[in-house]
Amino acid sequence: MARSVVIVGLQWGDEGKGKVVDLMSRDALAVVRFQGGDNAGHTLVVEGQKTVLHLVPSGILHESALSVIAHGVVVAPDSLMSECRMLEGRGIPIRERLRVSMECPLVLACHKALDAARESHSGGEKIGTTLRGIGPAYEDKVARRSVRVSDVFDAKLCESKIDELFEYHNHALVNYHQADAVDPAATKSLLAEFAEFLEPLACDTVAMLHQIRRDEGTILFEGAQGTMLDVDVGTYPFVTSSNTVAGGVATGAGVGPRHIDQVLGVVKAYATRVGNGPFPTELFDSDGRRLADHGNEFGATTGRPRRCGWLDAVALKHAIQVNSVSKLFLTKFDVLDGFDRIRIAVDYDESGINRRIVNSFDGEYLSQVKPVYEDMPGWSESTAHVRSRDRLPAEARAYIDRLEELAEVEVAGISTGAERDSMICCDSEIFA
Ligand code: GDP
Ligand code: IMO
Ligand code: MG
Fold it and tell me: pTM to 2 decimals?
């Protein structure tokens, strides 16, 4: 297996990244989250036991791998502590396996209040966020006023930073949003508790990762959200507030592009989106309902139903390009079982679109295009227990062949069920 592998979602999140990362973590020395926060919901299913992770990297079930939350992640203290308690309750030694960067900005009560206040009166422009305070926390990071992990170890400094920050945000909450002010007292005691919890976990994760790299250990970088939710190359403004693409590893984990060996793009065999924003291949008919039912498409973080549609090969090509994807991992393939006809969007009809906005994938452009479909025959057999690509029904193989042709990238693995071992390995080198 390549030594430094980035695993990113190529659609609107929930592609099954957690499952792929868990699967690949067996021989890794570190599994690293480099962006996002607890807006993520990554699901692992091992021998029937389901684990949903929000901040902790998806390698946590493996003994050999250190789970690293790098500085690009915004950390909600309450969320991280309750996730760790849940894992400790399952016998996972968090103190041994988890490390958190000293430089992570914290997501605090004022950020959640701002997220909620904005979403409650943004009308048609409502993003449909996870209400986890992610956007406001990243705003504070670039405005250079975050309270960071390292701050919690100096109680006096931390309290004065909290006071200053809450005073600043309460002004907007009360005077602009007509919302309630947030009392900083609860946050102060939360951070005192957090300091104790973090004491054995907080460290310089950049130095640690480079040491593992020099020792030739395998490192996996786990993306959260998906490329179309990237703040720069996604469907802006209907995006999250971080760089979800592979390039985010350089800034969010401090490991530069020359030290990345492989970029694995995770793509669902159809498409889903949770929250608002353009989605050209969205379905409102029985096919859409069937995808939602068979795929059990409910958000792992908010429980909201996910919007469903056919695979969009145009958006996929964009995602492959901006991430420099070297191999694809196709997930939820079993969900297509039993369809008479499967569609892939192979082009966009741009007639009537303002030339100025053509050639970008921002929200304005994507909301105006109409997908042009190619139809492929479906298959009636179940693919759930198939373990090799050549044992798949002929129509299923034809679908994957066509996808590879359109994407111009090979499929290295196919997931045919939620369980860890429900998968077809097409490229033995990736999993060696
Ligand atoms: P992530 O955010 O990209 O990690 O994905 P989520 O965990 O939010 O959503 C993926 C959902 O699909 C989870 O419920 C998984 O257990 C499930 N899943 C993953 N791979 C497969 C698969 O190949 N087939 C089926 N049927 N379910 C899958
Ligand atoms: P994983 O890692 C799917 C979406 C929200 C909303 C937009 C902005 O599980 O794939 P935010 O709370 O980030 O400010 O919301 O981004 N979103 C996700 N959608 N999967 C996720 O994570 C998501 N994280 C955020 O629904 O549209
Ligand atoms: Mg998810």
Answer: 0.97
